[in-house]
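Figure 3 (text version): C-alpha cells given as input.
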C-alpha cells in the first residue's frame, strides 16, 4: 500500500441480520485530503464511518488505517489506532452532566498523563480554535446546537489526531452555522489532517471535499473530484446533486 493512503476499504461488506448494508465497498482516502461520502438516508454512510475505527465490524473485507488492518485488531490494538483518529458524532455526543470544558478535557484525562495545568491550557487552546473559550464553564444544555457541534469538534481534536471522521456535520444546523463548521474543517485540512465526512449536504461536500463518493444501496456508484461529480452522467447521481442544489 502506498504511503499516501491514510484509509483503505478493500471489498468491505456488512449486513445486520437479513438486511444488507454494504456490499464489497472499496475506496482509498489519501493523506491530508477530505473525502466526502454522499448518499440518501439509510444508504450505509454512517456504518461505513464507524467501521473505520472498529465501532462496527464488517462481515468481510479489510479496512486499513495507515496500513494496519483494523478488522484484525483486538481491543488494545483498536485503542491504539483510535488515538490517531478523532470522531465528531452527528449529535456531538457530549456528556450532559459535565461542563463544556470538562467534555473537551475528557480524552486528555483518559489517554494522557498531562498535569492539570497542562490540561487547562490545552482545553483553552482547543475551545479557542472553535471560538468557544468563553463557554468553557457552561453545561451542554446551556448552549446552542451549533455550539455543541463545535465543542464536539474541539474534543475530537484533543489528542491531535491525524484523521478526523465527521458524521453529518450540517445536521440540524442553519446555513450560517453549517458554513462555520465547513470552514473549521477546511482549516484543519490545511494543517495536514485527513478528513472523512459523511453527509447528504451537497453544497457542504462541494465546499470541503477533494474527493466525493456516492453511496447507494450499499455500493459506491461513482466517485471523483467535485467537478467530476458535477459532470456525472449517472442518473441517480445527477438527480441527487440537483435535488440538493449542487448543480
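Below: residues designed for each position.
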Amino acid at each position: 500500500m502506498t504511503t499516501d493512503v491514510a484509509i483503505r476499504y478493500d471489498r468491505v461488506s456488512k449486513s445486520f441480520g437479513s438486511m444488507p448494508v454494504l456490499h464489497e465497498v472499496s475506496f482509498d482516502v489519501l493523506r491530508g485530503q477530505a473525502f466526502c461520502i454522499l448518499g440518501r438516508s439509510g444508504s450505509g454512510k454512517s456504518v461505513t464511518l464507524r467501521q473505520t475505527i472498529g465501532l462496527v465490524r464488517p462481515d468481510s473485507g479489510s479496512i486499513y488505517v495507515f496500513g494496519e488492518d483494523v478488522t484484525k485488531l483486538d481491543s488494545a490494538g483498536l485503542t491504539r489506532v483510535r488515538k490517531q483518529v478523532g470522531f465528531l458524532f452527528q449529535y456531538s455526543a457530549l456528556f450532559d452532566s459535565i461542563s463544556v470544558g470538562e467534555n473537551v478535557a475528557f480524552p486528555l484525562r483518559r489517554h494522557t498523563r498531562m498535569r492539570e495545568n497542562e490540561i487547562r491550557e490545552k482545553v483553552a487552546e482547543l475551545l479557542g480554535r472553535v471560538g468557544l473559550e468563553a463557554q468553557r464553564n457552561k453545561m451542554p444544555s446551556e448552549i446552542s446546537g451549533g455550539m455543541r457541534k463545535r465543542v464536539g469538534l474541539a474534543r475530537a481534536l484533543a489528542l491531535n489526531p491525524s484523521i478526523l471522521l465527521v458524521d453529518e456535520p450540517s445536521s440540524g444546523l442553519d446555513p450560517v452555522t453549517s458554513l462555520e463548521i465547513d470552514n473549521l474543517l477546511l482549516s484543519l485540512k490545511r494543517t495536514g489532517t485527513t478528513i472523512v465526512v459523511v453527509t447528504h449536504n451537497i453544497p457542504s461536500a462541494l465546499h470541503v471535499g477533494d474527493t466525493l463518493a456516492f453511496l447507494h444501496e450499499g455500493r459506491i456508484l461513482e466517485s471523483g473530484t467535485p467537478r467530476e461529480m458535477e459532470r456525472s452522467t449517472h442518473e441517480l447521481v445527477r438527480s441527487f446533486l440537483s435535488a440538493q442544489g449542487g448543480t
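The two ends are 35 Å apart (CA to CA).
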